[in-house]
Amino acid sequence: MKKITLLASLLLLLNGYLSAQNTRLITNIPADLNENSGMWIDNNQQIWLHNDGGDSAKLYTLDTFGTIQKTVIVTNAANFDWEDITHDAQGNLYIGDFGNNNNNRQNLRIYKISNPNTIVGRTTTATEIKFFYPEQTAFPAPDADKNYDAEALIYHNDSLYIFTKDRTSPHEGYTRLYQLPTDTGTHAAILLDSFLTGQSNFVFEITGAASSPNGQQIALINANTIWVFSDFVGSDFFGGTAQTYPLGSTTQKEALDFLDDSTIYFSNENSFLGTPKLFELKLPNPTITNLVQTKNVVQKMQVFPNPAKAKINLQLTVSQAQKLKINLVDATGKKVQTFTKECFTAGEHQMELDLKSIPTGAYYLQVVTGRYKTVQRVVIVE
Question: Which pTM does this prediction carry?
């Protein structure tokens, strides 16, 4: 995120300072990383950071004494507004160049580079995953629909997930969850869900995300709080248990990652409220669940016609008898209608959904089985 305004700084001050006995200061961060915005801790517990827009396309390694050990330049990339990084099981890094303060960008992308620890020398090259939000039709978006900025990215179960930063006015306080493949090319981001952060101003909305090494916890951060989601199934992160942790101060925090399954490192930028610092949050006795991860019983989902008018047909193939809940979700992630379908046998099933009372626009059908969701975008026209 770019420098916060004086007004935003005053809002942060008015929000006050919190107490947090489970956080501690690790070290100061050097001025080269005044705008640090994304963090990755590798298997050697080295801390990788990058700045947001204004710096070159560069990654830095930092030790816990605050000393920069190495820099790596991505020679065929540009730092238009880098906001977060994440990694897959092979250590490949994904760099989210999707900062969109004004909600007017049409060049959103994620850079993928090989594990920086395997790079010989100080340079590397990247491939690009380009994407767009299908719900956005105006650039910039109207004030009431400004939820196309993003500063948070994770990799989970072979997909990338983006958490948006709500800049709506009047402020709604939702972060939207979008899914993307890891393939190069241009993709439509798929809206999966939304989460009400309860924040009263965009300054306090989501600015970073991380997934724990065991894959059972997802962390989101803002200026003064970390949310940790656990006990979820698949990508239904917000369907799990949410725990909030106050961080002991209200500053411009944008980067975090898990050191291990019970420890989170996080940092803040240089701002009106203080110089860049690296902190630790200890999670109290995290519970590692051993859920039976049964497969999603929905094997195939089709909707037709699409676009649809007053009615739409939903065709599903299920692997076993199952009662299904079908949610129609609008572009903000809010449910507008719910249907049910009892599938008494495995195999193919079809149902007709009545949409006469639904306004025109883009929506998502979510077929819910237990805590799994299968999603298909639909468009309703006159």
Answer: 0.78
